[in-house]
Amino acid sequence: MTADRLNRIEPFRVMQLMERAKALEAEGHRVVHFEVGEPDFDTAEPIVAAGKRALDEGHTKYTQALGIPPLKARIARYYEDTAGVSIEPERIVITSGASGGLLLLTALLLNPDDELLMPDPGYPCNEVFVDVVGGIARRIDVEAANGFQVEGRSLIDAWGPRTRGVLIGSPANPTGAVLDRTRLSELVNLVHERQGAFLLDEIYQGLIYEGAGGNMEVGYHTGLAIDDGIFVLNSFSKYFGMTGWRLGWMVVPLEQVDAVGRLAQNLFISPSSIAQYAALAAFDEDAMVIHEQRRQRFARRRDMLAAGLRALGLRIPVDPLGAFYLYVDVSSTGMDSETFCWRLIDKYQVAVTPGIDFGEHLAERHVRFAYTTSEASIELGLERIGQALADWGVD
Ligand SMILES: Cc1ncc(COP(=O)(O)O)c(C=O)c1O
To answer: What is the mean pLDDT of each run of 10 residues along the chain (395 residues)?
Structure first.
């Protein structure tokens, strides 16, 4: 017997595609992976060294539920240095990945049947974090014509008597879209006028690229520079390349710290001690140089993959400014996105994620490419997709 919510939680389609990819690899095929949402680089060496030292020094016990003070202070300094934003370290909550933060925030803010608004397409697990605390995730369709950004009008229309707030990612998964300063302030104001909570997922912070606008157009490094009263989620997973360490952080309004602390003690006791001591090194200059080099490589890969797919006639409706994803319209192939993905993996050994994993809105037209793979693999992938399109008679 299982709870009813299990009928609402669907497995990701991409998991089945990955199973197929593994089976093909076991048969000796080389698969090109565009489906993986994590950096292909190993954790930077200075962080790994700090993790080893943490073990040797015996940092293997529970820590404070909200995280070790030196890491909170280090993150506060990071905001000061990168954005000129001054945050009291007490407002910083260290979590078990952004995932841990998402669960803390839905548990903090939602009573049963309360609603949280979020964009469609969007990060699929968000709905589940809402569901497990008895809330309802209400999706707001976002359009390519608006850069896949949530519009003020749609937010007003979607707001109902049980709406408690909105959760938006920027840069976004799966579109790579970044909320610009004007749009972000407009949305935050609309939410605060309605006494709602604004949750900004900045897990891809730092992964913003020049060329298609870049930092200049975005105009801020963290949403906290625009409004100090929002909830910000962040993580060491993406920019800092620490997915397997399971560490993230949040910045919450001061008056919520105590309540978040009570939840964190009960749900997690504490975040990983070893990961926290390792993460102290993530902001040191030697590690930051490595992160920056990797960002530049992602930028080159984005340009290379986007140009290659466009040359093959596939449409990328919005030039993504950030994260490491391209949301590509494959409707010109005459196939729905799931069929496209299956045929591509089965016959051409290229794995991409179908839009259906990110929501319903225009999902059958889109697939997500992650450029978390080497330039050589991208080249090979493009060659194979070119062959597939030729075989299918698509020009
Ligand atoms: C938008 C977004 N938020 C949150 C997460 C969770 O990441 P983690 O728990 O590794 O920090 C992910 C992971 O892919 C994501 O894409």
So the answer is: 89 88 95 95 98 98 98 96 94 98 98 98 96 97 94 97 98 93 95 98 90 53 93 97 97 98 98 98 97 95 96 93 95 95 96 96 96 97 97 87
How many CA atoms lie less than 13 Å away from 102 in the CB half-sphere?
25
pTM for the full predicted model: 0.96
Atom of ligand 1 nearest to the CA of 169: 1
The sign of the CA dihedral 360, 116, 127, 270 is positive
Per DSSP, the three-state class of 137 is strand
Give 118's strand partners: 139
Please give the C-alpha separations between residue 77 and each of 68, 225, 237, in angstroms, as whole numbers.
15, 14, 19
Measured CA distances, 161 to 29, 88, 117, 152, 309 (Å): 54, 33, 12, 17, 44
Question: Which token pair is 193?
Answer: 């006028």
For residue 258, the Cα-to-chain-centroid distance in whole angstroms is 27
- Strands, E, within 215-357: which ranges? 231-235, 248-251, 325-329, 350-351, 353-354
Q: How far is the CA of 320 from the centre of ligand 1 (A)?
A: 18
Q: Which atom of ligand 1 is nearest to the CA of 172?
A: 1
392 Cα: distance to centroid of ligand 1 (angstroms): 35
Which structure tokens are listed for 7? 């009928």
Instruction: Name the residue of 12, 96, 105, 173 whose CB sits within 8 Å of the most ligand 1 atoms, as the mutation to test its pocket.
Output: 173
